[in-house]
Design a protein that fits this description.
Length: 763
């Protein structure tokens, strides 16, 4: 591990020429020039495919290169010419592969042949798709009941595949549809549904150009949503003020040089954040309670930010909320937030002087015990100031996976909304299961006790993405059968149930052809726009099936024909995706005329009442929600650990061991730590440490986990907090330490102690 400092230090802009060079290098290394340019030229273009990199929306006017450095990495990584099949699996035992890093596994290339690991076998061996479907069908049917089976989805899956998948799973007889969003924005969905009546954001891309004040909270867009920086840059150039709320001074939040703008490349780009607020990890609920308290205290003065007309006309719960704000002391706010009162005053005064306010956020808010309450406190701020349901304002949770929002819209949920369920019931002649489904954390717990015995994963890397890696690995190994529908090899293929299956599939950038011709799929971005995606590359192997075909063929094999034949012809659906979309039109509220609307340029916008100021809660009003103020409190000698992404990974897919914007090179096994906290413990940069994490369970017992072998690196992080990379640090995250109300693991606030491994601890 090394730490390099550029001469311009931290203030150098994100992206710029370096981003162009890295993209060119990725083309050279992963696909070659012709295939690379061919695939990149169609990313995010009308008539092309949706970039699998993130869920940020596309502008109406697109440039020729409508992708970013990290989108290019994601695209080129799946468009790679390398592939693996039976020879690779004959050469390497599963145990041997399990010793390899996530990066090495991904670098081997695309999966091309269905493979099986039979009980007791040391190697995967090839089989045909038909044999694989038969084995999986037998495995699922051997479970004591459909509720003993679970079906995970990762958010790259198309609307068509996700809709059919949930239909198949419910026809089979269970609602067990755990999903990557359980680990991700579930807290946002739960919070916003209760506050506003919809579990999604209320902002359009255009609103960024109209907003006068934008808060970017708990989010690292320079790495994870780089195209968002273009929207922030434009907002800045139009005069908006941007406030970043983040313990880290993330590079992309400081300055951004648009790689396609010559003047940016020459002068180092546009300054993004006007104000940097650096709270304690998990100090955001207290910070926003503080801003709201300040606004209420300032109300008697001229030009108050409090919008009483909006509050009276559109909201409920203000009295109780005001009482809870009054009851919260300043000393508690300052202690829990880690932000000075003068800074809070500055933010409140700013809010009073600006017309449209947007709050955006991502994992820095969603992965804490009080995540739902924190997001509701941010929403209370927007409601107090009348900043929901008008142009240039609103709530903007920025989704992660490129179609995670779409998957939820088309039914990957533990319990279907009533109208959706009624429509589905009336179209089909099987009874929908009634027991609410298990989410990701519940699925792992159920695997451990025999409550789930067969597991299917439509994309993703369930083991590495989940908390408590060792526990989850043991839980998976108790399953009778596990099956992965995947593009690339990952750790979830190597720690499996007794029997394990791999179904390789086409990626989004590849052409999908059936007997009815070339097929398109569709996706929904973070702002509720649904649009088409058409791959343009030749598949990396001629026999690969699409996700839709795999789901249809599994359904055809699994479901008793007498229960569904009259209503559903799975083979026909697999051949012609228009037929799937007709079915979605008839069943999923908001998707009428799906095929026709999809052919409109840029797709269509799903209805979103709160965006227009029509709150879709039961009362028809937006709700102020009062929660007690809280913060995950490290005990004496403890620190609070957040697990974050580097600039060179997509979730569990690791592209390199560098994190350029943070100056980390050559290793991901690092612990970023404040120099004061290092000194107290007598630690030096580069020193090897063991980390122990702690969690008090519901029964009062203290659990611990440990991870040896991280190297300490002095870093500009507020004292009391430390950071390590996801997924390497996941063994420290506890399965039963989850956000209240959403059950999202608390991956950003883990109590830890740090001990030197180079001799006895000197603390
Ligand atoms: N290139 C790339 N793009 C991606 C992904 C990827 O891995 N690579 N992943 C995709 C997915 S699925 C998702 S969900 C998104 C994730 O996008 P992000 O949420 O940006 O990802 P994280 O790395 O988890 O970053 C969390 C940020 O929150 C800050 N933070 C941590 N704890 C706190 C806190 O308590 N308070 C505040 N205010 N800030 C905090 C961290 O310093 C960090 O800047 O990105 C998506 N896009
Ligand atoms: N500690 C900690 N844990 C976290 C997080 C964190 O911040 N900290 N973040 C959480 C978040 S936000 C998320 S979203 C989850 C991510 O959880 P997942 O979505 O489960 O994980 P990914 O790493 O995105 O999945 C990568 C794998 O998906 C497969 N794949 C890629 N593209 C396709 C495709 O088009 N089709 C199919 N069928 N397969 C494909 C490849 O085999 C690849 O190896 O992780 C969560 N876990
Ligand atoms: Mo995510």
């Amino acid at each position: 591990m090394t730490r390099k400092r550029s001469s311009a230090g931290e203030e150098r802009g994100a992206a710029g020429i370096k981003a162009l060079l890295v993209t060119a290098e990725s083309v050279h290394r992963r696909t070659g020039l012709i295939r690379g340019m061919r695939v990149l030229s169609q990313a995010n273009q009308a008539g092309g495919f949706d970039c699998p990199g993130c869920a940020w929306p596309d502008p109406d006017e697109r440039s020729h290169a409508e992708f970013c450095e990290n989108g290019a990495k994601a695209i080129l990584d799946e468009a790679t010419c390398r592939s693996i099949g039976r020879h690779f699996f004959a050469q390497h035992s599963i145990d041997e592969l399990a010793q390899k890093s996530e990066r090495w596994l991904n670098d081997q290339g695309r999966l091309t042949e269905p493979m099986v690991k039979l009980p007791g076998a040391s190697h995967y061996t090839p089989l045909s798709y038909d044999e694989a479907f038969l084995l999986l069908t037998q495995g699922l049917r051997s479970a004591p009941s459909p509720d003993h089976t679970a079906f995970y989805t990762s958010g790259r899956t198309s609307n068509e595949a996700a809709f059919l998948y949930q239909l198949m799973v419910r026809a089979w007889g269970t609602n067990n549809l755990p999903d990557c969003s359980n680990l991700c924005h579930e807290s946002s969905g739960v919070a916003l549904k209760e506050s506003l009546g919809i579990g999604k954001g209320t902002v359009r891309l255009l609103d960024f150009q109209r907003a006068e004040l934008i808060f970017v909270i708990g989010q690292n867009p320079g790495t994870n949503h780089p195209r968002m920086l273009s929207a922030l840059r434009e907002a800045k150039l139009k005069g908006a003020t941007i406030v970043s709320v983040n313990p880290l001074r993330e590079r992309g939040l400081v300055r951004f040089a648009h790689p396609q703008d010559l003047s940016d490349l020459i002068d180092g780009g546009v300054k993004i954040s006007d104000i940097f607020v650096r709270p304690h990890i998990n100090g955001d609920q207290a910070l926003f309670r503080g801003i709201n308290k300040m606004l209420l205290e300032l109300e008697p003065q001229k030009n108050s930010a409090i919008d009483r007309r909006f509050i009276t006309k559109k909201t409920l719960g203000i009295e109780a909320y005001e009482a809870s704000v009054r009851a919260t002391s300043w000393s508690e706010i300052l202690e829990k937030s880690g932000v000075e009162q003068s800074k809070i005053l500055e933010l409140a005064q700013l809010a009073a002087s600006k017309k449209g306010v947007i709050c955006t956020w991502a994992m820095g808010l969603t992965q804490h015990l009080n995540a739902v309450a924190t997001i509701q406190e941010v929403t209370n701020f927007l409601l107090l100031t009348g900043n929901v349901g008008k142009a240039g304002a609103g709530a903007c949770p920025v989704r992660g996976h490129s179609n995670v929002q779409g998957d939820r819209s088309v039914g990957i949920v533990p319990e279907l909304p009533p109208l959706f369920a009624r429509n589905m019931q009336s179209h089909l002649d099987f009874q929908l299961p009634v027991r609410p489904g298990l989410d990701t954390v519940q699925t792992i717990a159920a695997m451990n006790t025999g409550g789930v015995q067969a597991f299917v994963s439509l994309g993703g890397n369930f083991l590495s993405a989940s908390p408590d890696t060792d526990f989850t690995r043991r839980a998976l190994s108790k399953c009778k059968i596990t099956a992965q529908i995947s593009t690339k090899l990952n750790r979830s293929h190597l720690h499996t149930g007794e029997t394990a299956l791999i179904f390789p599939c086409l990626s989004r950038s590849e052409r999908s052809r059936t007997n009815s011709g070339e097929q398109i799929v569709s996706v929904e971005n973070s702002m509720g726009i649904v649009h088409a995606s058409r791959g343009n590359l030749e598949p990396c192997h001629p026999d690969l099936l699409s996700e839709v075909s795999i789901v249809c063929r599994l359904a055809d094999s699994l479901l008793p024909h007498d229960r569904t034949r009259s209503a559903l012809d799975w083979r026909a659906l697999g051949e012609d995706h228009d037929k799937i979309r007709d079915l979605i039109s008839a069943i999923v509220p908001g998707f009428s005329n799906y095929n026709a609307r999809l052919s409109e340029p840029g797709g269509f916008e799903l209805e979103n009442g709160p965006r227009e100021g029509r709150f879709t809660t039961k009362s028809g009003r937006a709700h102020f929600i009062s929660s007690d103020l809280s913060r995950a409190a490290p005990g004496p000698g403890e620190l609070l650990l957040m697990t974050i992404r580097s600039h060179d990974q997509f979730n569990t897919t690791v592209y390199s061991d560098n994190d350029r914007y943070r100056g980390v090179y050559g290793s991901r096994l690092v612990l970023l730590m404040n120099e004061v906290d290092m000194k107290v413990r007598g630690l030096d940069t580069g020193e090897l440490v063991a980390i122990t994490s702690y969690h008090r369970s519901a029964d009062g017992s203290e659990q611990t986990r440990s991870l040896p072998g991280l190297k300490v690196m002095a870093y500009d992080i507020p004292s009391g907090g430390v950071a390590a990379y996801f997924p390497e640090a996941n063994p420290l995250v506890f399965l039963d330490s989850c956000a209240k109300g959403s059950r999202t693991p608390t991956s950003k606030s883990i109590r830890v102690t740090v001990e030197s491994l180079s001799g006895a601890s000197r603390s």
